[in-house]
Amino acid sequence: MTSTLPGRLSFGALPQFATLAAVLLANWLVFPDFFDLRLQDGRLFGSVIDVLNRGAPVAILALGMTLVIATKGVDLSVGAVMAICGAVAATMAAADYSLVAILAAALAVGALCGLWNGFLVAVLDIQPIIATLILMVTGRGIAQLVTEGQIVTFTHEGLIAVAGSSALGLPMPVVIALVLGLALAALVRLTALGLLIESIGVNRTASTYAGVDSRSVLLATYMISGLTAAVAGVIAASDIRGADANNAGLWLELDAILAVVVGGTSLFGGRFSILLSLVGALVIQAMNTGILLSGYPPELNLIVKAVVIAAILVLQSPAAGRLFGFLRRS
Amino acid sequence: MSFKKLLMGAVYTCALSVASAAGAAELTVGFSQIGSESGWRAAETSVSKIEAEKRGIDLKIADAQQKQENQIKAIRTFIAQGVDAIFLAPVVATGWDEVLEEAKDAEIPVVLLDRTIDSKDDSLYLTAVTSDTVYEGKVAGEYLAKTVGDRDCKILELQGTVGSSPAINRKKGFDEAIAAHPNLKIVRSQTGDFTRTKGKEVMESFIKAENGGKDICAVYAHNDDMQIGAIQALKEAGLKPGKDIIMVSIDAVPDIFKAMAEGEANATVELTPNMAGPAFDAVMAFKKDGTQPPKWIQTESKVYLPDTAAAEYEARKNLGY
After folding, report:
1. What is the Cβ-side half-sphere exposure of residue A48, based on CA atoms within 13 angstroms?
2. A–B interface: beta-carbon pairs under 8 A
3. Where are the domains of chain A?
4. Which residues contact A24 (CB under 8 A, 6 or more apart)?
5. By the 8 A CB rule, do A200 and A214 touch?
6. Could you confirm whether domain B2-131+273-290 is CATH 2.40.10.170?
7. Nearest-angstrom CA–CA distance, A242 and A244
8. Alpha helices in chain B (DSSP H)
């Protein structure tokens, strides 16, 4: 299983890349300058860069979410965890802590949130959707406590650079998402972790009987999800130079789940692909940016989005796959 | 059950002790506040306390945590305490008739703050103090029309949450104000959900769609938070908001004053958090000689400009926005 990544890309990844290409093409049709790029102050500037930059938080959430979904779980709390970690980072930045301390604290809080979710799921055997719902609901309250109900703003150079600087011409969030994606893919594919996650997703009881320490693997998975939510939360706070406990990461858990699903990972657990989840996140953001560029009235935003998503999921459905197979043979 | 009784007992004991301590004050007003839903709401609470202190009024605030049943309980407690007036910021528009009837029977005047209620019987409350969101949009539009003058002006609009009443009304008022000026035209309008993040994202796309932002003459945002996000996006694209692009928005939160002081925003229309001040005045006049206030007291929608921004920021930053 671990060695099938390249094979899987060439074979099973076609619908995802085709979808991305179709959405990008549609963007180009509604906005002909979509692919224009120019260099400004040493960083690239253009709509495609916006798609990458704005898509980075959801892409990072989708990394952790992929692993959780592969275990046949789901993590509804990532949006709220973003708000908590963003609140922690912004409050510390306002108090002028060093960047290292801020990042360490935010990541530690994210890991702690993940550990809590993992504890509920792996140790208390609560269904993931309920277990993570608890933190989804209370998390914003916790974030409010941290910020004392205000939008905490900061002028901390170091923290602003997390989302505001660039490397190799790309905005830093894009670089962070790429590096995290590669690191996580290496972690799960170069070790047995990916295989263990898939086996738990297919059948946890059987895996446990076969000697897999499913409790530890589940704990680790939810902690990774908490950590990726923390990174996304710090990026979101850095981006607006403040923490908005009410709105940071609001509904992003749904976008992250959607990205994973569009990426082809089944909600029933098992087989997963980190790279394709990143593609899924790009599809969603490309669509959002396209809607903004198109100039349609905002009342249509959600309708356009729903129609596109429905079309993508229908095209990726097993029934459509059978139809294409039948057409190819005949 | 016994726990509930115990709790009720404790509430009444507290209530009684507070009531007796308040005997020295001239008037006692109970304020059923919605809860801490936003920075503006927190500011409204702090300003209410300041205004009460100014007038020597004893103000009791009950936080309803966004629940109507808590507000009804609070009103009943206020009636039991025999307060002189009740202020209500209703979390929803319906379902108030019964409890307000009780207040009426006890001859305690009720003043609605910030939001109104749906009720056929308008004798249930003394008056309602609210802002007019259509008028806010209109004030913003008139400011822009005056500032721009006769030259052609392409306006970008950042709308609030689609379908929310402030978004609909602030758009309507603005459209009415600029309708008389054919040189002013909204070329792009999208929702930024009243948040900084979305305001920034939408503005980034607007800049690309409008020729790198060179043709943009003005940005109108339905609230200051979206405008703050838009200012960041414009600056990152190498543009000069506040100088080359006229930035006008609504709410008057502290951070927009900071932006104005730094020359990055031009004007904000205030949604005043001081709803309680006019309400106190109405109640005091009513108690003194029975003066009936009008059924609707509209708060002022004042335009703030950069010249007073630094002072306004200092005055507002600790109000809890």
Report:
1. 17
2. 80
3. 2-6+53-274
4. A34, A286
5. yes
6. no
7. 7
8. 2-21, 39-54, 68-81, 97-105, 133-148, 165-179, 196-209, 224-236, 254-261, 276-289, 309-316
B204 touches chain A (CB under 8 A): yes
Residues A47-62: tens digit of each pLDDT: 999 999 999 999 999 9
Per domain, the residue ranges of chain B are 2-131+273-290, 133-271+306-316
Distance from the Cα of B221 to chain A's closest Cα (Å) equals 14
Q: Answer whether residue B16 shows pLDDT above 80.
A: no
Q: So what's the pLDDT on residue B41?
A: 86
At B144, give phi and psi (nearest 5°).
Answer: -65, -45
Residue A286: which of A20, A4, A12 has the closest Cα? Answer: A20
* Residue B229 forms contact with A (CB below 8 Å): yes
Burial of A100 per CB tally in 10 Å (0-12, 13-18, 19+): exposed
- Whether the CB-CB separation of A213 and A71 falls below 8 Å is answered with no
Nearest by CB to residue A292, choosing from B195, B202, B237, is B202
Which residues, including other chains, have CB under 8 Å from residue B240's CB and lie 6 or more apart?
A: B234
Residues 6+ apart with CB under 8 A from A41: B238
> What are A179-205's pLDDT values in tens digits?
999 999 999 999 999 999 999 999 999
Which residue of A39, A240, A287, A302 is the best one to mutate when testing the B interface, meaning the one whose CB has the most B CBs within 10 A? A240
Does domain B133-271+306-316 sit in CATH 3.40.190.10?
no
Crossing angle for the helix pair A78-94 and A252-262, nearest 10 degrees?
130
- Enumerate residues 229 to 248 of chain A having a beta carbon within 8 A of any beta carbon in chain B: 236, 239-242, 244, 246-248
CA of A273 to nearest chain B CA: how many angstroms apart? 28
Residue indicated by tokens 């995802």: A16
Cα dihedral A312→A318→A323→A326 (10° resolution): 140
B152 contacts B214 by C-beta, under 8 angstroms:
no
Can you tell me the ipTM of this complex? 0.90
Contacts of A299 in chain B (CB under 8 A): 162-163
pLDDT at B20 over 80: no
Structure tokens at B111: 């003043």
* A119 touches B at CB < 8 Å: no
